[in-house]
Records
---
Amino acid sequence: MPQTPHIEKHFTAGEAVRDVVIGMSDGLTVPFALAAGLTGAISSSHLILTAGFAEIAAGSIAMGLGGYLAARSDAEHYASERQREEEEIVTVPEVEACEVRDIFKTYGLTDEESATVVEALRKRPQDWVDFMMRFELGLEKPVPGRAWKSALTIALAYVVGGLIPLSSYIFLADAHRALWVSIGVTLVALAAFGAIKGRFTGASMIRSGLQTMVIGGLAAAAAFGIARMIS
Amino acid sequence: MPQTPHIEKHFTAGEAVRDVVIGMSDGLTVPFALAAGLTGAISSSHLILTAGFAEIAAGSIAMGLGGYLAARSDAEHYASERQREEEEIVTVPEVEACEVRDIFKTYGLTDEESATVVEALRKRPQDWVDFMMRFELGLEKPVPGRAWKSALTIALAYVVGGLIPLSSYIFLADAHRALWVSIGVTLVALAAFGAIKGRFTGASMIRSGLQTMVIGGLAAAAAFGIARMIS
């Protein structure tokens, strides 16, 4: 693949960054909203911390294991599809060659125009399988060991994110005072996180920071309102 | 694209299904684990319901808005990359043609073998842009209106999933008794959800059901343990 600047720009958001974003987005938002929501119903910081830590434990494990299973199932899906393509290239090469022509037909190319590429691929079975995996099925080769790394990164990012809004409840016994500190600290953290995320995904840092802050704020406000209503 | 059986099989997992899976996986797991965890520290069903509903509100909004922004940012990314490709095909056609040759080179094809395809694409600028979007950048055209639909589907699935483990706390005032009912109901729901998910993603239904049940159980057990420890 050519390394032109506009490709590189978008690929700086690697898979580890994506995992940190997944974990920290929810980690900063949900425990914050939960603690804020409970402060509408409970005045003891201790109970709110109990709920907050229980949520961090539940959320980080659920998200981490979810990430693990998603990566594992991607890898298994890739392996089984690859094996199928490898068999088909041997057992029904004409059908597969026809599929290559069909791919090019969707881009307006005639059979004559794609003929040399089809013939060239037929001479190189491994490259042909690679070609079908990417261009027919749209599947990327998974990185080995990715599932565990992904799970740990997501879970750790969730824990780090979740501890930020809870920190004020650790130091302030009065939940209502802790809430105001938590709101301030978390909104700043959300804005900073959103800005850094924007930097990696190529979006505007200011816009991404504001958007991320608004999400956390909305989720917390809704949770606060609902907890007030039912208590 | 050719509609061979092995493609169709995997594409039954449409985007709406994926959104339901995203929302319900977390919806069934996190409120369940939180309620179970709090039952280790609090014996009033009412307080646990307060925390549970606050968590459902926070989690569904955070996940729904997260899904909305992800879909929006995919669409914006696609549009900006497409515009860039359209410009480059006009301003630096030689560079772009070279990029097409480079793509084929990664599959072992010589410049001579890919020449006819390169020439054919140069005659059809729109198809050429489509080709570059998919084969150089690996980007799929986003569906219009997808962002809102995605957000609502994820949020609703989260709410539905989250109400299942909380239902027993609504009917049983004693949190410890409610917990046992909640565990039973939720493990059954997790297994059923996992099995249906497996049906759509092409995995084994039994294995997927068991895996999903184990995740929920582990997350809940950890949350339970942590809430006990700090209370």
---
Amino acid sequence: MSEYGIVIVSHSSQIAQGIYDLIQEVAKDVSITYVGGDEEGGIGTNFESASKTMESNTADKLLAFYDLGSAKMNLEVASELSSKEIEIYDVPVVEGSYTAAALLQAGVDIEVVKSQLAEMNLNK
Amino acid sequence: MSEYGIVIVSHSSQIAQGIYDLIQEVAKDVSITYVGGDEEGGIGTNFESASKTMESNTADKLLAFYDLGSAKMNLEVASELSSKEIEIYDVPVVEGSYTAAALLQAGVDIEVVKSQLAEMNLNK
């Protein structure tokens, strides 16, 4: 397994599940955990589920991806309280996590992965 | 209703559905049609479904968004065969369509919408 895992936090449970389905096809040896939606299955995110998703990832070093602003806030709070090494990326949630997954699976050096992601940075 | 509609084509039916759920919240007066996955519900896209999704949109001017490369190819072929005015954007599928939806709903001039999307352009 890759030393680095991937975490996805979306406002929609279906986006989160769909991204997982898409990226696990190209990254069978990367631990990927995901969550989307609020407690009632509607649109939203919350701190508890973001935290649980990070902690349930088998990797201790995580690359985290989100769709919209308030998901980032929850990821930030959760990562501050975690003992894991977590980097949150302001990149497109689908395309960014797909890129990271494919590169990690290929065993590309983490610095190269990070620099590829830096090129996808959005103001979000 | 907005003169412009939004089309989403994803490799995953769940990503497509989730994006619709997310963006229709901010764009109740924009016609949004979407499709994802292959005929069997697996990961993939095809020309027929991309075409059907464009034609079923009530708007004649469409902004089209996709996740990964082969979805773009299907959109391109479908748009060449359509009588509609269709622009395909190489932007993040979730964040780009969300931005377009919110701006169209707000009645922002289409040239401003297009220039905002241009700033989100990815090499994909």
